[in-house]
């Protein structure tokens, strides 16, 4: 397994792999994968109790990618941690590959929940958290949502459920990159103010810079100390983060890079690692 000095280095390698696999597949979702990269990097590199040699161990922490279209970020993290060979990333979205456009818990080692239909991931994370409490486990259930995803009513049903059952073993992140496929969520079907809404639904809310790994780690530490209610960490992020020509551009929600664009992006990312 490759060794990384810290979560920032891990995130940089994740971004390189995201670009390469999306260019190879010719389809996918780069913008939201890159905005979520630093959050996933901290969770998988620094925080979560997981074991690539025993991906189904009962007391492991769980991660639910509720915004399932950001699967390339999750796949990059899993491959870099040796859940499966990194060479398989080039098979993203290919027929017969276990790496499809949205995560499949039955095919991909390290994936805890199949997701894709927005809103369902946070709901299943609630079920995992409640089950863990009933089983007497002391693990943590993590979920990652998109801001556009909060336009789904199921999200708010899950929010009520988690608060009602005092699921303090549930920590959710909201990738607040201010863009969905059709533009800014405020202009599509505004879910704002998200911080006040999650508080009103009974959650503790922490607001951070979602690209500052130290802030992410500090927020997780604070969240784990909370008792009697779930925690929502609202992470301010940039869609397409790390690739200058993709940043804050809604058009990169679901458009893969061509070979020239991929070469330009990877070159810039390699310079960032110097």
Which keywords apply here?
274 residues, alpha/beta, Rossmann fold, five-stranded parallel beta sheet
Mind explaining what this structure looks like?
The two termini are 21 Å apart. A 5-stranded parallel sheet has the order 1-2-3-5-4, with helices on both faces. Helix 8 links the parallel strand 4 and strand 5. The chain has helices at 7-25, 30-47, 71-80, 120-134, 153-164, 185-189, 194-200, 213-225, 259-272, and strands at 62-65, 141-146, 170-176, 204-209, 231-236. Helix 1 runs antiparallel to helix 2 (30-47), helix 1 (7-25) runs antiparallel to helix 9 and helix 4 runs parallel beside helix 5 (153-164). It contains 9 helices and 5 strands; from the N terminus they run H-H-E-H-H-E-H-E-H-H-E-H-E-H. The model has no long low-confidence stretch (mean pLDDT 93). It is of the alpha/beta class and 274 residues long. The chain has a single domain (7-272), classed as Rossmann fold (3-Layer(aba) Sandwich). Helices cover 41% and strands 11% of the residues.
């Amino acid at each position: 397994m490759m060794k990384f000095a810290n979560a920032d280095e891990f995130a940089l390698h994740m971004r390189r792999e995201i670009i390469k696999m999306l260019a190879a597949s010719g389809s996918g979702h780069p913008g939201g994968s890159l905005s979520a990269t630093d959050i996933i990097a901290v969770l998988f590199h620094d925080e979560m109790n997981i074991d690539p040699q025993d991906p189904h161990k009962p007391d492991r922490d769980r991660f639910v990618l509720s915004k399932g279209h950001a699967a390339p970020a999750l796949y990059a993290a899993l491959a870099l941690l040796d859940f499966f060979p990194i060479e398989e990333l080039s098979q993203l979205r290919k027929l017969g590959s276990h790496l499809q456009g949205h995560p499949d818990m039955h095919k991909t080692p390290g994936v805890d929940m199949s997701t894709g239909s927005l809103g369902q991931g946070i709901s299943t994370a609630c079920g995992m958290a409640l089950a863990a409490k009933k089983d007497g486990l002391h693990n943590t259930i993590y979920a990652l949502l998109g801001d556009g995803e909060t336009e789904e009513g199921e999200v708010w049903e899950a929010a009520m459920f988690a608060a009602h059952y005092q699921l303090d073993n549930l920590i959710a992140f909201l990738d607040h990159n201010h863009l969905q496929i059709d533009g800014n969520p405020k202009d599509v079907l505004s879910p704002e103010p998200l911080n006040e809404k999650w508080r009103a639904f009974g959650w503790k809310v922490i607001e951070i810079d979602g690209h500052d790994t130290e802030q992410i780690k500090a927020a997780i530490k604070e969240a784990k100390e909370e008792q009697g209610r779930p925690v929502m960490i609202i992470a301010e992020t940039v869609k397409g983060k790390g690739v200058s020509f993709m940043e804050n551009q809604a058009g990169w929600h679901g458009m893969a890079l061509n070979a020239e664009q991929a070469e330009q992006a990877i070159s810039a990312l390699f310079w960032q690692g110097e």
